[in-house]
Amino acid sequence: MALTEAYLISTKNLPAVLDAIKTARAPEKFTLRFLEDLGFKSTNDRLMLPLLKALRFIDDNGTPTQRYFDFLDDSQSARVLADGIRDAYEDLFRLNKRAHALTRADITGKLKSLTEGKKSEKVIDNMARTFLELSKLANFTEEKVVSTKPKPEPEIQEYPESVSEPREVRETESSIYQLSKVRLIDGVTYRIEVVLPAVRDKAVYDAIFRSIKEHLL
Prior knowledge:
This protein has 217 residues and is mainly alpha-helical. 47% of the residues lie in helices and 4% in strands.
């Protein structure tokens, strides 16, 4: 089940804990001792560890993840937290992609359904309150933007201006090139592009055009 069972009995210190994480140097391991060093020593505060694991801020061994380090950046911490909430409560967001905007009553009802009625009213209430308090600190408005800008049409390669071919070669090349560029066969359009070498020997072009005429036209 992609729905965390981690919750806080009291959420009053939640904003302060997250702020302390951002201002403190990231530890090698996020332990109860580190949490206490941040100034949070109550038994209720200890429940932050499984919650941070659910948010994927730390792994099962307590090692900070990349998401933890991203969260340290104030300019994106709220968005990073939102990503963590989506992961921890994936089943809830599967039911409603704007689950963070639902009322407490709606959240409670959906949690009861997702847990198949196996959790007590008190536990469900704590889960709902934890989710809603986390959501208040997160920014769900920033989504990854997928560019829909169409790809530019490929440009036809131009010959270098430094190369001066005889006029008759350029004219012959132009007519053959245009003739071979678009063909209609049984209603299907074929586009053939020919890149000619920058040489002055007319015989080279003649050979290329004969081959095109024989095999393509």
